[in-house]
Amino acid sequence: MSDKSINQLTAIKLEALSDLGNLDSIDQLENWRVKYLGRKGNLTNILRGISTLPVDDRKIVGTEANKLRSSLEEEYEEALSTIKSGQYDQVDSIDITLPGRKPKIGRLHPSTNMIREIVHAFNEMGFQTVEGSEIELEKYNFDMLNIPADHPARDQWDTIWLDSDSHDDLLLRTHTSPMQARVMEKNDPPVRVIVPGKCYRYEATDATHEWHFNQIEGLAVDENITFADLKGTLYEFVKKIFGPSRKVRFRCDFFPFVEPGVDMSIDWNGRWIEILGAGMVHPKVLDAVGYDTEKYTGFAFGMGPERISMLQNEITDIRNFYSNDLRFLSQF
Ligand code: YSA
Fold first, then answer.
1. If you measure from the C-alpha of residue 305 to the centroid of ligand 1, how many angstroms do you get, rounded to a whole number?
2. Residue 21 has what pLDDT?
3. What pLDDT is recorded for position 62?
4. Backbone φ and ψ of 116, nearest 5°
5. Structure confidence by residue, pLDDT tens digits, 145-164
6. Residues labelled as active-site residues
7. How much distance in Å is there from the Cα of 301 to the middle of ligand 1?
8. Which residues of the chain have pLDDT under 50?
9. From the CB of 258, is ligand 1 less than 6 Å away?
10. Staple 268 to which of 88, 97, 98, 273, CB 3.0 to 4.6 Å?
11. Distance of alpha carbon 54 from its chain centroid, rounded?
């Protein structure tokens, strides 16, 4: 009697495994599960009939039937995860007669593209690219830029301070201007650098403000540098990036590290849009790095490439740059 049941179990096993090898969808797998493991399946029938077997056979058939049940359940789980991971679909989707398809390749981030374009424009005017650290010392971010601890201008930069066992003056730079001091400290004039880099401010985000964004800093120091050089350089920059007929406006502005200070706007469909801050490097900044303020003068400027890209590409919300949404990123 037990021989007959064991033969039945072996037949069920062979059939179940052979069926399993031929299916490739969740629906087919579910039918398989019902057929072999369901309440009305052959295996369940054998298990139900165990009580009718002679006592000696019950244990042997029961053990074998339960073993088979466990092994079919394992096969089921494995097949389910294989189908879900798409392995079957992928195997099926290979059609060697199809012509080759171009693999999808990535592209540069719109911020990177804008930064490269702006930096290139200044490289062509003789500015050398320099990069600095996003973690900065208070001294360079503020003090050497004529922004002492009690200066009200510090309020303009909502600073993210860093915890450190060795330093209590570490922060995430709020602008790229600290590189002015770092570059001048290490190099004698003439200096002409362009500094792209990431900045951080502890501030609320909105359509034109992010808490992390890029800036591009420019600095030129030499003998006889005047405000006319500043204007001429920035006019040339606008021509290169926005075309030859774009109108430009300078207005007075205040930054502690320049004197005089200006902001520059460009005409955008009849509206003046501010794109950067600039000015003649403050003698106190030159003095702090040991430059002879009787001999040397300089100009500096700082701009936000994401804001410039927003103008060029009619982007209405700066937060799109950092939300990693391919529907946005793949448009560039
Ligand atoms: C001014 C004079 C100089 O001689 C040199 C540099 C500067 C710029 C100064 N360091 C500065 O940070 N000025 S700023 O606060 O007005 O920022 C400059 C540019 O950075 C802005 O015009 C804007 O384009 C961008 N920016 C500032 N905060 C931002 C931002 N972009 C996105 N999100 C923010 N939260």
1. 10
2. 84
3. 87
4. -60, -40
5. 999 888 887 777 789 999 98
6. 157, 175, 201, 215, 258, 300
7. 9
8. none
9. yes
10. 273
11. 70
Helices (H), the chain: 2-21, 26-37, 42-48, 55-84, 87-93, 110-123, 138-141, 178-186, 227-242, 283-288, 305-313, 326-329
Distance CA(275)–CA(284), nearest Å, equals 26
Local structure of residue 95 (DSSP, 8 states): -
Q: How many residues does the chain have?
A: 332
Report pLDDT digits (tens) over 247-300. Answer: 999 999 999 999 999 999 999 888 899 999 999 999 999 999 999 999 999 999
Query: C-alpha dihedral over 286, 289, 290, 296, to 10 degrees?
Result: -30
Output DSSP code: residue 206.
B
Cβ distance 248 to 235 under 8 Å? yes
Location of structure tokens 């054998």? 46
Please state, in angstroms and rounded to a whole number, the distance separating the CA atoms of residues 108 and 300. 28
Residue 197 near ligand 1, beta carbon < 6 Å: no
Q: Cβ–Cβ contacts within 10 Å for residue 119, how many?
A: 18
Which residue, chain included where needed, has tokens 């019950």?
58
Reported as half-sphere exposure (CB side, CA atoms, 13 A), residue 126 has a value of 7
CATH class of 110-329: alpha beta
Q: Could you give the CA distance from residue 37 to residue 66 in angstroms, rounded to a whole number?
A: 11
Q: Which residue's CA lies nearest to atom 7 of ligand 1? A: 302
Which one, of 305, 284, 329, lies nearest residue 108 by Cα? 329
Supply the residue whose CA is at minimum distance from atom 20 of ligand 1: 304
Domain ranges of the chain: 2-92, 110-329
Report the distance separating Cα 32 and Cα 76, nearest Å. 9
Structure tokens at 269: 């469909």
Q: Using the mean position of ligand 1's atoms as its centre, give its distance from the Cα of residue 202 in Å.
A: 14
